[in-house]
């Protein structure tokens, strides 16, 4: 660990070494600015306190985009996975996504090694208690050990640690952001003192049980996917199918539900000890029984935390009921009759900052130089956190780096909704109202056919290259792939086959690319297509018309996105509802397009705003 010199001024200080903090610190350091990453326990860097997995619908798309921009989550996941699956393989390309089971300890070790080797990056083990500013300018931090460290920009990535409380049953068993770590109360107070509004959210995690106590023969096997599957190199097979570790599927039953119903008074969501909203996409088993009384069973995925670990994660069995009841619930399930709990399930209640307070660069609107990334913005999941960390790190570096600005030509970096899921994520955070932790889905993106997992590199690698985060070699490989796709498309259009050209023939639902090549070979027409582009060529052929339609929608909507909103006193806008005024004042939309997406703002409100802006424009032209 490199020691930090006294009186040294850092360009970027990153608080917290979770998935957001690691990506933020690495990217800012790679962009040439002096960066400090501070965390309470370095050995717990990039830990996975909940699910030992990375990816999934929407989330897997984020990981591929992080990689394309120069982040490390995808690379480390590829090196530490024990299983990888292509989800929704029978559906269209827009919703297909990778999900990998991770060797948790390997992921942490690899991340720590990368951080320690990174030039311009210093690691410090300490706790930040205060963020300091002079007038409206960030000046640095103060730590629990008494250090005062100067910094030009600060990125807060505190996860669930701000004023965090751990709940099991009817009791707050301790103050903490995780079961084995304390919470950060002083920093929460400091953020409030700076003028940030903080609210409360809740999340939870299921019990962990011992591998040796499970009867797998009573469960359904959930294997990985054979062949090329990789977050970072889609054309590569990063793990042989025979070496993948399976997951297993079992179900709750009548007895399980009966135990929960009889003891529901002990559930913290029923007793009232937890009043905050938890993630709807991952409800506790007690909430499922309350909300779906007629459902006869719920799936429970039994997932290993790694080859080296004796712990199994019970996805679908999240609960914070008392530990003795957790054991009864688990042992009522087929295959888990003799299960031994190694760690009970628990809930965490914590402070977060409602994200209307940030710009789409992730900088706090009223505090220049202060950036927020990850669960502090009300998100859920490692992938959403890492994506925000990457964007915050880039923008913090751009804010103070003339080198970065000259490479990019702008002072900030913002991805549009039609460019990346990352753009969708950040825009949703700012414009939507959030009563529960936010999770990205493929359904969140209106242009999802343009934002396929398979074309993430083609969409975004130029940004990564321009920031100095992706190599010229990798960029040239992607350019070559794009040329091969266009070359194949042109060639197929020139081959007449079955009274139409081969490209149009491939559009038929019953024909796949291998069928076509076999049929062409019988006609003595041989065409060589590189394996890594076969699927992508097929996708483009089958969805070409839909893709063109979405591209036209982007062009149509671009006018609304380009119609910028100047500084407006919304109280002066006639016919604008009071609730809409409040939301517009909170969000401060940059364009009419963004204003249209604000929860609580109607098309009628936008019409009133447009009329007012036009009148103001005419008055200015007259004067």
Brief summary of the model shown:
38% of the residues lie in helices and 18% in strands.
What does this structure look like?
The chain is of the alpha+beta class. The strands form five sheets. Strands 1, 2, 6, 7, 8, 9 and 20 form a seven-stranded mixed β-sheet that branches. A six-stranded antiparallel β-sheet has the order 14-15-16-17-13-18, with no helix packed on it. A hairpin with a 2-residue loop joins strand 21 (496-497) and strand 22 (500-501). Helix 2 runs parallel beside helix 13 and helix 10 packs across helix 11 (402-408). The longest helix has 32 residues, at 531-562. The chain is globular, with a radius of gyration of 26 Å.
Please count the helical segments.
20
Structural class: alpha+beta
Strand content: 15-25%
Mean of pLDDT = 92
| Secondary structure: helix percent | 25-40%
Total strands: the figure is: 22
Taken from the alpha-carbon principal axes, the silhouette is globular
| Through-space gap between termini | 63 Å
Write the layout of secondary structure elements.
Elements: E1 9-15, H1 19-30, E2 35-39, E3 53-55, H2 59-69, H3 73-80, E4 81-87, E5 97-102, H4 104-117, E6 121-125, E7 128-134, E8 137-143, E9 148-156, E10 165-168, E11 171-175, H5 185-194, E12 199-205, E13 208-210, E14 220-222, E15 247-251, H6 254-262, H7 268-271, H8 285-291, E16 299-304, E17 311-315, H9 323-331, E18 341-343, E19 346-352, E20 370-372, H10 382-400, H11 402-408, H12 421-431, H13 456-466, H14 472-494, E21 496-497, E22 500-501, H15 502-506, H16 513-522, H17 531-562, H18 578-587, H19 592-596, H20 603-622
Parallel strand pairs: 1-2, 1-9, 2-6, 9-20
Antiparallel strand pairs: 3-5, 4-5, 7-8, 8-9, 10-11, 10-19, 12-19, 13-17, 13-18, 14-15, 15-16, 16-17, 21-22
Helix pairs in contact: 1-10, 2-10, 2-13, 3-4, 6-9, 10-11, 13-14, 14-17
């Amino acid at each position: 660990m490199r020691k930090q010199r006294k009186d040294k001024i850092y360009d970027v200080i990153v608080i917290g070494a979770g998935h957001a903090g690691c990506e933020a610190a690495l990217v800012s350091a790679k962009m040439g600015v002096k960066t400090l990453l501070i965390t309470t326990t370095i050995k717990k860097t990039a830990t996975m306190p909940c699910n030992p997995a990375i990816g999934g619908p929407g989330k897997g798309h984020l990981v591929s985009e992080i990689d394309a921009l120069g982040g490390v989550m995808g690379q480390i996941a590829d090196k530490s996975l024990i299983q990888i699956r292509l989800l929704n393989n029978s559906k269209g390309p827009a919703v297909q996504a990778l999900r990998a089971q991770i060797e948790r300890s390997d992921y942490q070790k690899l991340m720590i090694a990368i951080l320690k080797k990174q030039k311009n990056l210093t690691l410090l083990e300490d706790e930040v208690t205060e963020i300091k500013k002079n007038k409206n300018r960030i000046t640095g931090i103060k730590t629990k050990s008494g250090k005062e460290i100067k910094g030009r920009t600060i990125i807060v990535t505190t996860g669930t640690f701000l004023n965090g409380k751990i709940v099991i049953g009817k009791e707050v068993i301790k103050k903490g952001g995780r079961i084995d770590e304390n919470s950060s109360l002083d920093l929460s107070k400091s953020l409030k003192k700076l003028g940030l509004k903080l609210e409360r959210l809740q999340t939870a995690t299921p019990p962990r049980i011992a591998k040796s106590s499970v009867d797998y023969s009573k469960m359904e096997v959930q294997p990985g996917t054979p062949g090329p599957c990789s977050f970072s190199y889609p054309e590569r097979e990063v793990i042989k199918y025979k070496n993948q570790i399976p997951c297993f599927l079992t179900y709750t039953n009548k007895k399980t539900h009966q135990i929960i119903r009889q003891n529901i008074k002990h559930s913290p969501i029923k007793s009232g000890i937890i009043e905050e909203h938890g993630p709807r996409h991952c409800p506790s088993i007690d909430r499922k029984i309350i909300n779906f009384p007629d459902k006869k069973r719920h799936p429970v995925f039994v997932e290993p935390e790694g080859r080296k670990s004796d712990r199994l994660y019970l996805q679908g069995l999240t609960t914070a009921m008392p530990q003795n009841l957790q054991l009864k619930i688990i042992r009522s399930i087929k295959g888990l009759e003799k299960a031994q709990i190694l760690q009970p399930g628990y809930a965490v209640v914590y402070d977060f900052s409602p994200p209307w307070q940030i710009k789409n660069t992730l900088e706090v609107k009223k505090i220049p130089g202060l950036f927020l990334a990850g669960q502090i913005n009300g998100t859920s999941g490692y992938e959403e956190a890492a994506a925000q960390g990457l964007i915050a790190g880039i923008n913090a570096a751009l804010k103070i780096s003339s080198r970065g600005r000259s490479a990019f030509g702008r002072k900030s970096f913002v991805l549009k909704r039609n460019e990346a899921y990352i753009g969708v994520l950040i825009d949703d955070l700012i414009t939507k109202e959030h009563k529960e932790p936010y999770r990205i889905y493929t359904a969140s993106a209106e242009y999802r056919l343009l934002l396929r997992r398979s074309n993430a590199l083609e969409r975004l690698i130029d940004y990564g290259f321009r920031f100095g985060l992706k190599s010229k070699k990798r960029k040239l490989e992607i350019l070559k792939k794009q040329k091969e796709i266009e070359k194949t498309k042109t060639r197929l259009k020139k081959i007449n086959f079955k009274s139409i050209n081969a490209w149009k023939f491939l559009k038929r639902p019953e024909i796949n690319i291998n069928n076509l090549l076999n049929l062409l070979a019988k006609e003595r027409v041989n065409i060589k297509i590189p394996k890594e582009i076969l699927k992508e060529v097929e996708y483009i052929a089958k969805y070409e018309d839909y893709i063109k339609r979405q591209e036209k929608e982007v062009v149509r909507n671009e006018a609304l996105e380009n119609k910028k909103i100047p500084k407006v006193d919304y109280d002066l806008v006639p016919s604008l509802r009071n609730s809409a005024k409040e939301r517009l004042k909170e969000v401060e939309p940059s364009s009419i397009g963004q204003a249209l997406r604000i929860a609580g703002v109607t098309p009628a409100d936008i019409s009133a705003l447009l009329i007012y802006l036009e009148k103001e424009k005419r008055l200015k032209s007259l004067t």
